[in-house]
Amino acid sequence: MAKYDVVIIGSGPGGYVCALRCAQLGMKTALVEKYPVLGGTCLNVGCIPSKALLDSSEHFHNAVENFKEHGIDIPAPKVNLAQMIKRKQEVVDQTTAGIDFLMKKNKVDVFHGMGSFVSKNQVKVTRGDGSNEVLDTVKVIIATGSKPSSLPFITLNKERVITSTEALKLKEVPKHLIVVGGGVIGLELGSVYARLGSEVSVVEYMDRIIPTMDSTMSKELQKVLKKLGMKFYLGHKVKAVASKGKSVTLKADDPKGTEIELKGDYCLVSVGRKPYTDNLGLENAGISVDERGRIPVDEKLQTGTPGIYAIGDVIKGAMLAHKAEEEGVFVAEVIAGQHPHIDYNLIPGVVYTWPEVAAVGKTEEQLKDEGHAFKVGSFPMRALGRSRASMNLDGLVKVLADKETDEILGVHIIGARAADLIAEAVVAMEFRASAEDISRMSHAHPTFAEAMKEACLDATDKRALHI
Ligand code: FAD
Ligand code: NAD
Known about the structure:
By secondary structure, this protein is an alpha/beta fold. The protein has three domains: 2-148 and 274-344, FAD/NAD(P)-binding domain; 161-268, 3-Layer(bba) Sandwich (FAD/NAD(P)-binding domain); 355-459, Enolase-like, domain 1. It is built from 14 helices and 22 strands. The strands form five sheets. Strands 1, 2, 3, 4, 5, 6 and 17 form a seven-stranded mixed sheet that branches. The longest helix has 25 residues, at 81-105. Bound molecules: flavin-adenine dinucleotide and nicotinamide-adenine-dinucleotide. Residues 151, 180-186, 188, 203-206, 211, 238, 270-273, 318-320, 350-352 line the site of nicotinamide-adenine-dinucleotide.
């Protein structure tokens, strides 16, 4: 007799949410985590701590740049980085403690130790002291997540040449932070330190930042981050990063092939993340990874071995916490015999700079590539009363709708609270709303959400009201 219905390896947002749903559905569930704390990348060294530092640094930035205009006179504020990092850690600790509570409440058995396959129905948990125990199970769900990737010629010494994990606990504000990779991590953590006074230089291989998002967002975000003082080296091919003592030197070729050199005191390498399956013993379960290290799965997220499933960063698709969560729920329900569904096109993506960038559905570039006839509606944030009242003038909403049917195909927002505003677009698109549907719905005044309504009016037949 198997001891468990399900063993889940990895307690990130994929794994722990999956455990909760399995328990809700009446399965005897075990969760295996190699670290002493639950929550994975997202809670410990990802989403939550980065947002804590983004919020703290934005408060500082506002105190320096905007309080006076608001009529708040204070002595020149100073950064207390140690306190900022301490608060961040408290937020992390409270959040991970919440996961412990949820596991207990739902009677999920938690095992701390490295999980590895003995066979397709047995998972060994090896503790730090070398002792181990074997869990017998009917199903296994692999939710082992990802780790930062690097470039072959870069040595991450984790002191001066660092990943996001170290950037979340620096002991000093860098004088000059060089960032390799102008994607989400580079821009979020780059803006944290730019706000705290660092010179920040972003070296990006592609010809625009956040290259997978709609190009209008790349352009607008670069404009606002430049105002913050960040420098951009686009279309640059990094060739070398060397660190000596307290200094770091980066060499890259510019788009014309001319070598440039940057000198700084820290270099953040943020060129993506790679799936993590080290020491998992996949071979004992008959599973092999693809050329990018990901575990191949079918449409039910089942691996090539029946009864073993994989979710989150360790499989294909966007490396996002909410994508991992959806997959965790999906697999639990599949195992329970239900028929869940995930529309991957409607998983939103957010960059938590200020202003934030948020998107769902297709970009203009994707629609052009697909030959899909579409129309564009847009509306600038600065035309809103709410934006002027709060001094958040940057950004716009861009709505892409089918040329014939007016169905919304993509929404791209850069502006204050875009991360929250995108939820309206997700709902609209889940229900296959047209731009006119949204434009005829009342949006509270004055709110940032009015920009969505106005952009939809613009998409419907160019009849935005407040411009
Ligand atoms: P993970 O969260 O990586 O969890 C995997 C867990 O498995 C880990 O705890 C690991 O220790 C454990 N594990 C691995 N192997 C074993 C083993 N053999 N035995 C036992 N345990 C094992 N996403 C967002 O959606 N929004 C954000 O704002 C956001 N911000 C981010 C900021 C940063 C700096 C980073 C690095 C990432 C951010 N992400 C964000 C991405 C997000 O963190 C990941 O997409 C998400 O954590 C993936 O969840 P997961 O459950 O697949 O894996
Ligand atoms: P990313 O894929 O977002 O960005 C990597 C960037 O590095 C890209 O712009 C890429 O063109 C560039 N790049 C690649 N090779 C390069 C080279 N040789 N030289 C210069 N630039 C190079 O990856 P990331 O920022 O490291 O983040 C990793 C993952 O974590 C992402 O998949 C992201 O989804 C997730 N994450 C999400 C959030 C969020 O949702 N807000 C925040 C942080 C991280």
